[in-house]
């Protein structure tokens, strides 16, 4: 039984203040140290909890930003609402087919995508990256998929990541499936979506990937050929789950199919840090039987 | 229309606080001293609005409030703050968790209203955060559904409006109390628009002598709102348009892309007024008078009856410096006055 934490984890007050200081005084090296130290500290806690996790992405302001900043022909546009939340992301504007770039882009400073070494990489699924972007209508969708896929493989290669979690706000669609398959030839891939996954095309790739979770995990559990995580930890409510209650759900789900373990309904950046920390501990208590 | 026959000009709510207030707002422990600073800033901002020529000066830029959610939430029993949550980038806000029944500990706008009444002779309009936004921006750990929590907030807001209306009636007997319900979250869950309508109607239920407007900003689609307009027991809207408009002058359809949705408004609504946002609050660019005038003329062409048109910035101007805010308001007023 695993407990998977993914995506942007809430920044501590100290780190938030350090970023404010950097915005005013521009001490980039100090900020890099702060990111690294907070990442290492959290990873150490997660290791002691025996959690499976992606990089906490403390340097990501939203789930697209550093990815967009790593691309040629993509710039940042207006703020847009993330799903039905009161959290906003900067919409990427895609003028031409993207390619990988490490050049710093002003006025947004480039931070390396990843600091953590032991963690899974986190990337938005290609269809999510496109649907949350403003895309030049003259660009061919299939070619766009191909060029973003190339950027993703460059990113994974540069940071030496052999495991990746693809996060799909929009379910992985037909256009993306071949790229998920190609990625899974060289990399261990887990797919997570906070919405329902599209059953028919999606289930085809479950023999190629490492794990899956979505809001309809319990529905796909009987038919999935890869292990399924169930999102029992609510990322949009401060009420902290009772480990007994979570264990009950898990034990009922176990008989339905190939259960990987538990995860959260979305990434935890929508919660105050103190609550996210408590929820991470609950996940640990569930899998470790405390 | 205002007394001199021009369109009514109004601000939306917030305006940049002077440094002497913003630097100490969260830190000053001496309540009396802080109140004096709020009063000083309110007087200065009312004066600034009057110099800009506004018909309606609101409440002097909301100098009594730090933030539209936290200000009421801090005065309610039943809400606990666990910490900050991200709004965007490295910007965070305090999102409360509702952990028990909501009860008003202290009224949150009465002091501001009393002070403003005593310090201006112009029309005033009281902005208050609406129940749907209070619900949507809270974590719900206590009530059994979003609807239940929403209706509790609606009752709370009703009590606040009622209390302010009582104050107003003492100084302005027979004159309507203008209240603007701020609902930035209004259209974020299109499947909850029935709930939204129910909560607004509950917030004003049984209160006589009100003129109620609704301010919504940065909606992806105002048709969602206009579709339920008939059922909303309000008198009008104050909405944003300028941030999505072209910066080129012109009164034609192609010149004014952001304002075409006003057709959806008039198609669905024949009585309520529309406060039209004509200046963008997220840029320092000061829209010239002729551009603003063209936006107004185009809007009037669609709405028809000038008594149903009011003119305002898109949203509160707190994001701009006081100097830029003044210039934007001044050009807005000049644009209205330039229309024959």
Describe what this molecule looks like in 3D.
The complex is a heterodimer of chains A (290) and B (340). Chain A is α/β, with parallel strands linked by helices. Chain A contains 10 helices and 11 strands. In chain A, helix 1 (13-25) runs antiparallel to helix 2 (28-49) and helix 9 packs across helix 10. Chain B is α/β, with parallel strands linked by helices and 340 residues long. Chain B has a 7-stranded parallel sheet. In chain B, strands 2-3-5 form a 3-stranded mixed sheet. In chain B, helix 8 links the parallel strand 7 and strand 8. At the A-B interface, helix 1, strand 4 and helix 10 of A face strand 2, strand 3 and strand 5 of B.
SSE layout and pairing:
The complex is a heterodimer of chains A (290) and B (340).
Chain A: E1 2-5, H1 13-25, H2 28-49, E2 52-53, H3 65-69, E3 71-81, E4 88-100, E5 121-124, H4 126-131, E6 134-135, H5 141-158, E7 163-167, H6 174-186, E8 188-192, H7 199-204, E9 211-214, H8 217-220, E10 228-233, H9 243-254, E11 259-264, H10 273-288
Parallel strand pairs in A: 1-2, 1-11, 4-6, 5-7, 7-8, 8-9, 9-10, 10-11
Antiparallel strand pairs in A: 3-4
Helix pairs in contact in A: 1-2, 5-6, 9-10
Chain B: E1 8-9, H1 19-22, H2 31-52, H3 70-73, E2 76-88, E3 91-104, H4 110-119, E4 126-129, H5 131-136, E5 139-140, H6 146-171, E6 177-182, H7 193-204, E7 210-216, H8 223-226, E8 236-239, H9 262-268, E9 273-277, H10 289-303, E10 309-312, H11 322-337
Helix pairs in contact in B: 2-11, 4-6, 6-7, 10-11
């Amino acid at each position: 039984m695993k407990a998977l934490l993914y995506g942007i984890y809430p920044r501590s007050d100290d780190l938030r203040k350090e970023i404010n200081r950097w915005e005013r005084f521009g001490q980039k090296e100090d900020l890099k140290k702060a990111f690294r130290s907070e990442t290492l500290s959290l990873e150490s806690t997660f290791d002691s909890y025996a959690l499976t996790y992606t990089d906490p992405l403390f340097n990501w302001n939203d789930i697209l930003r550093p990815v967009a900043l790593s691309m040629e022909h993509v710039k940042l546009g207006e703020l847009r609402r993330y799903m039905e939340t009161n959290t906003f992301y900067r919409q990427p504007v895609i003028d031409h087919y993207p390619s990988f770039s490490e050049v710093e882009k002003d006025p947004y400073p480039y931070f390396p995508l990843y600091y953590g070494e032991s963690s899974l990489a986190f990337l938005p699924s290609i269809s999510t990256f496109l649907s949350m972007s403003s895309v030049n209508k003259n660009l061919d969708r299939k070619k766009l998929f191909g060029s973003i896929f190339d950027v993703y493989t460059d990113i994974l290669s540069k940071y030496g990541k052999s495991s990746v979690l693809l996060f799909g706000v929009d379910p992985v669609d037909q256009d993306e499936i071949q790229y998920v398959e190609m990625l899974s030839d060289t990399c261990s891939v887990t797919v997570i979506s906070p919405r329902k996954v599209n059953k028919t095309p999606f289930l085809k790739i479950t023999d190629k990937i490492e794990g899956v979770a979505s809001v309809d995990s319990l529905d796909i559990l009987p038919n999935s050929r890869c292990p399924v995580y169930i999102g029992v930890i609510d990322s949009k409510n401060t009420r902290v789950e009772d480990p007994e209650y979570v264990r009950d759900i898990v034990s009922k789900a176990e008989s339905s199919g190939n259960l990987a373990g538990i995860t959260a309904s979305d990434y935890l950046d929508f919660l105050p840090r103190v609550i996210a920390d408590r929820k991470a501990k609950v996940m640990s208590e569930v899998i470790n039987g405390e | 229309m205002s007394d001199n026959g021009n369109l009514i000009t109004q601000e939306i709510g917030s305006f940049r606080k002077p440094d002497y207030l913003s630097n100490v707002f969260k830190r000053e422990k001496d309540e009396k001293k802080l109140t004096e600073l709020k009063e000083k800033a309110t007087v200065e901002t009312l004066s600034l609005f009057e110099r800009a020529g506004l018909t309606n000066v609101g409440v002097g830029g909301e100098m009594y409030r730090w933030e539209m959610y936290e200000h009421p939430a801090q005065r309610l029993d039943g809400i606990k703050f666990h910490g900050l949550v991200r709004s965007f980038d490295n910007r965070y806000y305090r999102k409360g968790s509702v952990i028990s029944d909501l009860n008003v500990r202290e009224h949150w706008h009465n002091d501001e209203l009393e002070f403003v009444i005593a310090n201006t002779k112009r029309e005033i309009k009281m902005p208050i955060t609406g129940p749907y936004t209070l619900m949507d921006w809270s974590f719900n750990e206590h009530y059994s559904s979003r609807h239940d929590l929403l209706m509790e907030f609606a009752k709370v807001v009703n009590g606040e409006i009622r209390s302010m209306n009582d104050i107003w009636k003492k100084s302005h007997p027979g004159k309507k109390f203008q209240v603007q319900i701020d609902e930035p979250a209004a259209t974020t869950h299109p499947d909850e628009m029935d709930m939204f309508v129910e909560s607004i109607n509950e917030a004003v239920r049984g209160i006589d002598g009100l003129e109620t407007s609704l301010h919504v900003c940065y909606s992806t689609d105002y048709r969602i709102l206009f579709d339920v307009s008939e059922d909303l027991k309000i008198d009008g809207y104050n909405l944003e348009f300028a941030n999505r408009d072209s910066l080129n002058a012109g009164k034609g359809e192609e010149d004014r892309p952001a304002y075409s949705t006003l057709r959806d408004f008039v198609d669905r609504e024949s009585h309520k007024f529309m406060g039209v946002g004509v200046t963008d609050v997220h840029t320092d660019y000061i829209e010239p008078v002729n551009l603003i005038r063209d936006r107004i003329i185009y809007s009037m062409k669609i709405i028809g009856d000038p008594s149903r048109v009011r003119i305002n910035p898109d949203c509160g101007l707190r994001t701009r410096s006081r100097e830029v805010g003044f210039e934007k308001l001044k050009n807005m007023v000049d644009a209205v006055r330039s229309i024959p």
